[in-house]
Amino acid sequence: MGFGSLLNATLSLCDCELLRYLLERFDVGRCSIHLEEEELLLGDDDVQKTLGIPRGQQTVVEAEITSKDPQFTGLVALWRQRWGVKTGTPTTSQMLNGIIERRDHGDMFKRDFIIYVVSTLIRGFKNMFCNYRLLYSLQDVSKIQDFNWCAYTIRSLVDTTTTWRGKRDAAFTGPATFLMVRGEIVRKRIPTITSWTSSDLRARVKVERDIGGFGKGKVVEYIPDAHQPPPPQLSPPVNCHKVRKLKRSPPH
After folding, report:
1. Cα Rg for the chain, rounded, in angstroms?
2. Which one of 5, 40, 43, 211 is most buried, by most CB atoms within 10 A?
3. pLDDT in tens, 55-77
4. What is the domain partition of the chain in residue ranges?
């Protein structure tokens, strides 16, 4: 499916102060983070090197809530029956427990896994229910790796940041892990999420506080692991590792 790298991820901490700093300095128009002296542009390639998820040619599509597509609605009915719900979806915690308890495999397991990953790492809901509308793009599980999940993550970052800014006391439901981990290299391994632990994140936050606050360090290039081949380039990179000196004040 192309999501195997996430099985090696151990980072479970979200630092709210760091996340708020990044969200407040994220430019939704340019898809960039305005640091103290630099601008870090984000794109598909950054997501692939951070999370290690597929970057294929097809666009991930979520069904509309009112969709009457017979194949989609039929699959939703079967999926809800599998999870014992008549409407809506199970929560992410229910899905996690169910996936562990079932220990099954097959097409429905693959759909469960992708829905759980997306709902917890990329595009979730504040009520902790799962993003079942993804089933529209999961009808043929053999094509999961053909979708551009990196571009989907970037779209989610822009959309969820815009929503969060409308009510900043609300929970952020977008790709928080990607936003926090991007740009920090630990033991030179790609995807970088496989090298991060909660202890690493705490240490990073402490160092940045000690030097006077977030955003004062330098943006660094990715350093590939000599023992790992580069990830496949399935679509043109978007704003890969572009850093520019700021000539204006960061957005508020």
Report:
1. 19
2. 40
3. 999 999 999 989 999 999 999 99
4. 1-53+168-252, 61-146
Cβ-proximal residues to 224 (8 Å cutoff; 6+ apart), any chain: 188, 190, 230
Distances from the Cα of 15 to the Cαs of 18, 20, 79, 203, in angstroms? 5, 9, 34, 11
- What is the pLDDT averaged over residues 219-236? 46
What are the angstrom distances between the C-alpha of 202 and each of 20, 26, 102, 130, 197? 15, 22, 34, 28, 9
- How far apart, in whole angstroms, are the C-alpha atoms of residue 181 and residue 45? 14
Q: Residues, the chain, total?
A: 252
Can you give the chain as a three-state secondary structure string? CCCHHHHHCCCCCCCHHHHHHHHHCEECCCCEEECCCEEEECCHHHHHHHHCCCECCECCCCCCCCCCCHHHHHHHHHHHHHHCCCCCCCEHHHHHHHHHHHCCCCHHHHHHHHHHHHHHHHCCCCCCECCHHHHHHHCCHHHHHHEEHHHHHHHHHHHHHHHHHHCCCCCCCCCHHHHHHCCCCCCCCCCHHHHCCHHHHHHHHHHHHHCCCCCCCCCCCCCCCCCCCCCCCCCCCCCCCCEEECCCCCCC
Question: Does 248 have pLDDT greater than 70?
Answer: no
